[in-house]
User: Fold this.
Amino acid sequence: MLVVAIEKERTFEKVAIVSFLTILFILSALLMLVSCLALLLTKNIMHACTFLLAALLGVAGLYLTLHADTLAVTQVLVYVGGVVILMLFAVVLTGGQDQESITKEKFPHLAPLFGSKSTFLKAFLVSMIFFVAAASLLRLGEKEIVHVVAVNYAPTIQSLGQLLMTDYLFAFELVSVLLLGALIGAALIARPMKK
Amino acid sequence: MDYSFWNIAPIILFPLGAFVINAFVGCKLYRKGDFISVGAIFASFLYALRIFKDVIVDQHSKDFYVHKVFTWFDLSVGDFPFKIDMGFYIDSMTATMLLMVTGVATLIHLFSTFYMAGDAKYGKFFVFLSLFTSAMLALVLSDNLLSIFIFWELMGFCSYSLIGFYVEKEAAGNASIKAFMTTRVGDVLFLLGILAIYNIVGSISIVDIYSALAMGSFEGQSVIGVSALTFIAVCLFGGTIGKSAQFPLQVWLPDAMMGPTPCSALIHAATMVAAGVYLSLRMYPVMVAGGITDFIALIGVITAFGAATIALIQTDIKAVLAFSTISQLGYMVMGIGVGAYNPSFMHLITHAVFKACLFLAAGSVIHSLHDHHTHGHVQEMPRMGGLRKKMPYTFLAMLCCTLAISGVPLFSGFVSKDRILGDALYFGMVHPHKWMMIVPVLGFITAGLTAFYMFRMLFLTFFGAPRDEEVYNHCHKEHFSFTQNFPLLLLSLFTLGVVYSGSLTGLGKINIPVVGKEWFSTLITMPKVEDFTQREKVKMMDSHLPEKFETSHYHVHEASEMTHEEHVLHKAHSIGAITSIIIAFLGIFFAYLMYISKGLNPAKWESAFSCWNKALKERYYFDHFYEKILIGKGLHGFNNALAWFDLNVYDRYVIDGWEIIAKKIYLGLSWFDMKIVDAIVDLSGTIIRFFNVTLRTMQTGRIQFYFVVLFLALSGYMLLTRI
Amino acid sequence: MVSLSSFLFLSFVLFLTGLMLVLGRKSIIFVLIGLELILNAAALNFVAYSRFVTEKLDGHLFALFIIVIAAAEAAVALALAIRFYQLKETTHLDELSELKH
Assistant:
């Protein structure tokens, strides 16, 4: 097992060993970022769904770096295997028209606020930079993390299961009812109209 | 006799009552109520007779008077007095006038029942006659100038109504308006005089005026630059000029002959025109103090002479009489001017009697002569002639009166006219300006002319061969009828001189049983103003007489020792008497020559004086002057000038100027309304639209827009609450 | 090296991308894609905090619930998208600006 050094946010100490988790993090982050960028720039809706898939995979990888193994798997199962498929089906059922490039499309309805999409993109970049700068300057998220978080690489599924059935039982039941409702609702809404 | 209110007032109230009754219910009464009028005036005559007997016969004192007053109104405030008293004033002049007016009026009322019979407006005639007589009697009885003026105007109204009695004749309407307007000119002056007197004296009662004169209240006063007395005298005499048809206001009297003949007899011969002379007689002290007696004499004599000359060529019988009335009134005014106070009054009385009789006789003639073509009556003398046989009673009356007016001795006219002429001669002889001899000279010439034209009228009407056969044949022979002939004969009885005096010269020897001789010439005396300062006034309803009055009697002029003045006077009277007799007979002789014996040819005389003849026919162009020049050019020109000013200047600039101002105000207000008020009104709309636009932009219905807003709101909230 | 702030930054990028897709894209599918990304960003945030701040696994659980709900919501949303397409023959969101169909 890797040893996690005691990390204090204040000091930027480089860790000598580049651990697997770091590499996984970098790769997942890269994947996610590229997919996001591609989503913003693509015109093709099929490509967009694919890029969504990639982004979600990236997020799953990020979950793994956060020691959330159950979550990562659930992510892949539900999102990638369910939602994206659902979207692809919807794309098929709604004609699958291509969109204009985001840079070309204008925001006429958002004209009072944004102008063209290129303006929007630039605003996005600027705000990202601003956030990073502001966050680092204002030390946002710097709660006093004093104690060392003992890392254990134990699988989380057992704990999650226990939590679900004890502390969050009510929420669990509700969510299942919600899923039922969603199923029935979706089926009802998507029924062909009576002419 | 006790001069209580109920002994005096009925004189006025009887005719007034007759007027009221006839005016309101006359047409329903038997014979349209003429008997009420006649009865009323006869009753007044009886009362007047009673007063006359008491004043003239019993008292016969020059100082006897009865003065009863009541306060008409009293609006005095503080020490500013404003009180008008009215009342009766009876002295010998009043008593005589009352008797004359009521007597002549009764006879004329009687004659009118004959003359106006068959006329459609028979009743209306008596209504006006009654009103007129009541007004005249009230004037004679009144004691102050204001009530004289009131009744003067009332008589003017009755004259107007009666001249225009025949409404179907447009000329009659014009004549009535002319009469009213011309006398109006005189009345305005009269009123001015009254106002000036009231301003200075503080009262308009005749007695108060006399005492003010005696006390010298008029000294040093002046009205519009001239001496007050002169102004007042001229103004009051102006009333006389208007009412008594003197020069220059004589133009109305000839046209007044358009009225019915009894009205001409009463109003324009005997009473109303005499009222002017009566006023001058009453105000004689004022005239003397104002120093205008020469002026009065000149006016009088010019009037007398001018009218006499115009009468020479008249062909209408009533026109001759009208001009002769003007001429005789001129004599009376001349008499006032030369100082013949008594003779003027005497002439007024005698003239009233014989002129009324002349008019009634003329009316009788006119009434009998029908023109079957026009269904009217004949008034033109060229169509008459030889009526002596057909109308004997009328002829007799007219003969007596013509002799009287001509100044033939033994008749009344001689008594009075001779005295006037004698006094005029005296006046001319002693006057500082020798050219004032023209006054008596013209007076004598006029006497001659009067005789001439009156006898011309008589000869043309009653003598000679009838000029219009048809008219002559249709004329009925006159029977004696009470209403037609009795008035004529009674009046002509009173034209005999013996009634008034027993001698040729009028210095009478008839004795009044109580007081003695000379009753007519001592009827009245020229008032001495000093006597009036002590006079007392009694309240109207009190029945006792003033306790203090003197009964100084008239004394007969006894020529024991004459002063030089009296010597000249006597000489003047003698010369005057003889001259007037000679001239009268000359006039009659000329008329005889021209019209009976045809010795002189009237036509030749006319052509010889053709220019003058034309002037006479045009009545000396007075009518032309008044109507065409004074009114036509002067008054209408003035009217047009005022109208031009009104339309072009006043309307244009003042009235229409307001239009411009109003327009400017309107523009200002409309700018204010549109720019400011509307802007405020629009502001609400603008605010709403603003909100509408902004809010509408928010309600796009697009989900993504709502997302943006939501996101911005949330992020804003979070940022703001966390920082 | 791997710290909380990097995960926060990543979740921010994800959130921003999702937001831009929701706000900027015209097709309804794209909007739903963006919506998924936003939800994922939130879940990532939860898990990051669970790992770095607390020992408990509440964050994991919450992220699990997010996934479930996101799936349910995606199903219903896509059904709506299909219905929208059936009505308007297009997926252009501007057509969806009126309540009446």
Observations:
- Residues 502-517, 554-562 of chain B have pLDDT under 50 and may be disordered.
